[in-house]
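Researcher: Going back to the complex we discussed earlier. I've cleaned up the inputs and rechecked each line, so this should be the final set. Can you rerun the prediction on the complete assembly and write out the structure?
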Amino acid sequence: MPPKGRIKVTEIYCKGCELCVSACPQNVLGLANDHITVKGYHPATLIAEGCTGCGICSIVCPEAAITVYREKTVTNRIPV
Amino acid sequence: MADYDVETETLVYERPDSLTDLSTHFCPGCTHGVAHRLIAEVLDEMNLREKTIGVASVGCSVFSYNYFDFDFIQAPHGRAPAMATGIKRVLPDRTVFTYQGDGDMASIGMGEIVHAAARGENITVFFLNNTNYGMTGGQMAPTTLPGQKTSSSPNGRDVESQGYPIRVAEMLAKLDGASYVVRRSLDDPKNIRMAKKAIRTAFEVQQRGLGFSMIELLSICPTNWGMTPVSSIQWLQEKMIPYYPLGDYKVHPAIAEIKF
Amino acid sequence: MARELMKGNEAVAEAAIRAGVTAYFGYPITPQTELLEYMARRMPELGRAFVQAESELGAINMVYGAACSGQRVMSSSSSPGVSLMMEGVSYIAGTELPAVLVDVMRGGPGLGNIAPSQGDYNQMVHGGGHGEYHSIVLAPATVQESINLTVDAFDLAEKYRSLVVVLSDGSIGQMMEPCELPPFKPLKTVFPDWATTGAEGRSKRVLTSINLDAAAQEVTNFRLMRRWQEIEANEVRYKTYFMEDAKFAVTGFGSCGRLALSAVRAARAEGIPVGLIRPITVSPFPTKLYEELSHKLDALLVVEENNGQMLEDVLVATRFQIPVDFYGRMGGMVPFPDEVLDEIRRVARGALDTSGHPRDRWLKRMAQKNL
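Model: Rerun complete. Updated structure for the full complex:
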C-alpha cells in the first residue's frame, strides 16, 4: 500500500502557476476551475485520489502555499 | 496549534516561520518565490531568524523585505554587497545576506560584488539569474543568452555588438577571497533540494567565519520570457543549464568538514 | 589636555575616534588621504572596523549599511570622490540615517587638481543627490575647529537622524597647527529603536528609502522638511569679528573666512570700519543674521574660493537691500589676503556699481586683471 497523504492549498498565496500540477508524480493535482482566488487565479487543488504526501508540490511551489500531510501507518504511529 | 491530528498524520511541509504571511508581488510561477522559501526554511532550521539581517537589492527582489520575517535593509541598485559589508563589519555575530538579481549584481553592481568576494567578506550572496531585467520589463541583462530576444535586444542578443553573457559563479570562483561559490537551479524538485542544501552550506560557512559565499540560482521569468511557467522551466533546462552549468565552482577545503 | 601639533586630516580622524566612531569606510584621494591612512592604522588597533573600499561608491554604501546598525560610522573623501558618493548620500537621507562625511575639497570641475577649493558648496549645501533632502554642513576654518566640529557632527547626526558633512578643504586638511584633542567618549552600548540588529525578541525592522506610494513618500518628505525647520531653528552657528561698529562686512566660510580675517585686520589697521562674518553651519545657513545685518551695514563683500556659490544664499538672505559684492578665485586658486584687502578698500570707498548680478560685476573686474 502506498502511503496516503493530503495537501492544503492556502488560496491567498496560490497563483495557479501549475508548477505543482506538472511536478506531481501521481498526477493528482490540477486547477480548481470552479472558482478563483481573491487575486483572480484558479488555485491548485487535488483532483483525484492517490496523493501520497510526498511533498514534491511544496518543493516546487514558489509561494509556499501548500501544506502537506501524510497519514501515519499503523506501525509508525507513536502512542500518545 | 496543529490543524491536523498528530496521532494519525505527519506534517510533511508547512510554510516556514521566516516568511511573513504576505502574498508576494511576483508573477505566477516566478522562482524568486522558491528562493525566498528555501532561504526562509534554512534560517528556520538553523534557528537564525532572530540573528539575521537581509539586504534587499533593486529589481523584482526590491520587496524581499516584505516577505522575510526578520530585519532587512534596502540597498541602492547593485550596492547590496557594500551595504552588507558595512553592517556585517559592525555586527560580526549576525548572519548577513544579500539577495540580488542578475541586472543588479552582474551589471551595475559588478564592482561591489567582485570586491566583496575578493575581500572574503563573511557574508552570503544569493544571485538570481533569470537572464533579464525583470522589474523594468525584461531588458537585456549581462546574463542574457546569445540570440535571446529581450525588449532591448529585440532581434536577439547579438554578441558582436552587445557582447557575451557573464558567467558570474565561474568568475567569482577565481578569487582567493571566495570560499563557497556554486550554481544551482530552481527548475525541478531534485535541483531545488540541491539548492536548499547549498543555501544551508553557505550559511554554515558564514556561521563558521569561513568567508564569502555565493549561490547562483538559475531562475525563470515567465512574464518577460513570454511563456507559461511550465514551458519556462523547460526553456531553463534546455537553454540556460547548458550555458550556465550547475556545479560547485569553489569549495574551500574547510567546508568539506561541515556536517549538518 | 596638552596641546599638540597635528595635521588637519589626521586631527579629524583622531577626533572621530574619540567621538566613538565604530566603523570607517573610505577610498584614497588627495588631499584627504591622510585621514584614510590614519584610520587604517588606528581603527584596527582599537578593534574597530576599517575598510578601504573598492570606490567611493562602495565606501558610502558601506557607511549606509553600517549606519543601519545605529552605530557611529563615517567616511571621508575629496570633491570627485564625493560626487561619486552622491547616490548613497541621497539614500542615507531618504532612509533617515545618521552618518558623518568629511569632504576635503579640491579644485574642479572634473578631475581638476589637488589644490584647496570651496567648489563643493552647492553640491553639499543645496543637494547633490536626487530628491528633497538637506544635509547639515559644518565648515571649519582651523585644525582645532575641524576637531570640534567632527565631534559635534556625530552628535548632530544622531540627534536628527541626518547626514552631517564636515566641509573642509585642502588647506585645512593639509596644514599643521597646534590643537587640543577631546577626551575619549565610550562606545555606544544602547542603540536606537529603529536599528536593524537582528529581530531578537521583537518584531522585524526594515530600513529602506523606497516608497512606491507617492502620497506616503510625500509624508516622509514633509517629515524631512519639518525636521529641517527644527534644525534651522536650533543649530545655526557662525562667528563674527569686529562687527560691533562695522559699516562694512566681509563674509566667507571655512579657510576663506580665515584668510579674509587677515584682510579685515589689515583694513582695520587702515581705519576702515569693516568686520567679518564666518558661517560655521553653511547648512543650515545663518539667513537671519544676514537679514538683520542688511538693515545695519552699508555694504557686504562675499569672498569664496569658488564662483560665488554661498553668494546666492547671501543674496537671498539680504534680499538686495544693501549692495553686495563678490570676490572669488576658482579651480584651486586661493586668494591672497592682499587681494581681499584691495576689495575691502574698493567697497569702503563707496559709490558701488550695483547694477546687475554681483557675479557678473566680479567677472568684469577679473577680466580687467586678464583673468
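Model: Worth noting: The two ends of chain A are 25 Å apart (CA to CA).
Researcher: Good, that matches what I expected from the previous run.
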